[in-house]
Design a protein that fits this description.
By secondary structure, the chain is α/β, with parallel strands linked by helices. Helices cover about 50% and strands about 15% of the residues. The chain is globular and about 55 Å long. The termini are far apart. It binds iron/sulfur cluster.
């Protein structure tokens, strides 16, 4: 099956309606055994040290030899022009030009207008030779998958039987459903039926994780130090687990591409509902979103005063957390535990 690749969440329903395989390049990069060397490969190929490791890793999934994603199998590269970073826009230009892959520019309009979103989805559908009506049919089919993802998310904070890493992985993978949503759903149902019988986890510190997904695993380390992530903000947004009246509303409700204030205020509602007792804000080195930390601190002080907040910066993939990050998380969790 021919692939449609993308660097951030897009209306995956369109790709499925067009009978093509959706591939989120982030998932390919970060799940690779040698993600660190993918970053290095991009630097050798000319990417500056001062560009974020995600962009470099995404480039190398297609550019390294042999590639993780063979460009001959790619029908379309979808770049998001409004709602994603400029690095991703330039990456789309480089990949399209170097490997002769057609690209499509999708836009999340900042007005969050339903009418504009419907028109944008329809334009995308036409570019892939399908229709809005077929896309809506897929949207309806995916409802059951998204409902089960919502159940998984609820089991993380109500039943306490899902680890932070499991919550992260299932939700983040919903951007492309690992390329096969039917198989994804079968595996998810099996996982949920097994998780239901677990004994609840007992870590004391209930953590909200905000920011882009981490480039290395922090979840296991947190759990060994009496904390557990029960809310993964952006990953939950990627999974679109909130029920909406139609597909346009689903993508206007999705907070990631819109303003940081809108995003954080939405996250605060969820964190209050879950009785979060500590917040980790992950920021990626050389990412413009790092500055959003200033706004988050202001909103947290107004809305969740007294809840400790750790801003954690990550750069390159690492198989083991380095000493500095371990010490910071450990000290933070000790403080949060004392309340
Ligand atoms: S981490 Fe930031 S700079 Fe890097 S791709 Fe994501 S949004 Fe862009």
């Amino acid at each position: 099956m021919k692939k449609v690749v993308f660097t951030t969440t897009i209306p995956v329903e369109v790709v499925i309606a067009a009978k093509l395989q959706p591939v989120d390049m982030n998932n390919i990069f970060v799940s690779s055994n040698n993600s660190k060397s993918l970053v290095e490969f991009a630097e050798i190929d000319g990417f500056p040290r001062s560009s974020c490791a995600w962009i470099k890793g995404l480039y190398s999934t297609v550019a390294q030899d042999p590639p993780l994603l063979d460009y001959k199998d790619i029908t379309l590269f979808v770049a998001v022009t409004e709602g994603d970073c400029s690095n991703a826009g330039v990456l789309a230009q480089i990949v399209s030009s170097k490997f002769n892959i057609p690209s499509h520019l999708f836009s999340f309009h900042p007005s969050q207008s339903l009418m504009k979103m419907r028109a944008e989805i329809e334009r995308f559908a036409q570019s892939l030779g399908t229709t809005l009506a077929d896309t809506v049919t897929v949207w309806k089919e995916l409802k059951a998958v998204r409902e089960d993802l919502r159940r998984l998310d609820e089991m993380s904070y109500e039943n306490n039987v899902i680890t932070g890493q499991e919550n992260h992985l299932w939700l983040v993978s919903a951007s492309d459903f690992n390329g096969d949503y039917k198989l994804f759903h079968q595996e998810l149902k099996l996982f949920l039926s097994q998780a239901e019988n677990r004994k609840p986890f007992e870590q004391k510190v209930r953590i909200g994780y905000l920011g882009v997904p981490p480039i290395f695993d922090i979840y296991d380390f947190i759990e060994k130090h009496n904390g557990r992530v029960i809310f993964n903000e952006i990953q939950r947004q990627f999974a679109m687990v909130e029920s909406t009246a139609d597909i346009a509303e689903q993508y206007c409700n999705y907070s990631y591409p819109y303003s940081a204030e809108y995003r954080f205020r939405k996250a605060i509602v969820e964190m209050k509902k879950r009785n979060i007792t500590a917040v980790i804000h992950y920021v990626q080195s050389f990412c413009h979103r790092h500055i959003e930390d200033i706004l988050l601190r202001k909103i947290m002080a107004e809305e969740m005063p007294g809840v400790p907040l750790l801003t954690l910066e990550g750069d390159k993939p690492q198989s083991e957390l380095d000493g500095r990050i371990r010490t910071r998380i450990e000290a933070f969790l000790e403080t949060a535990e004392r309340g």
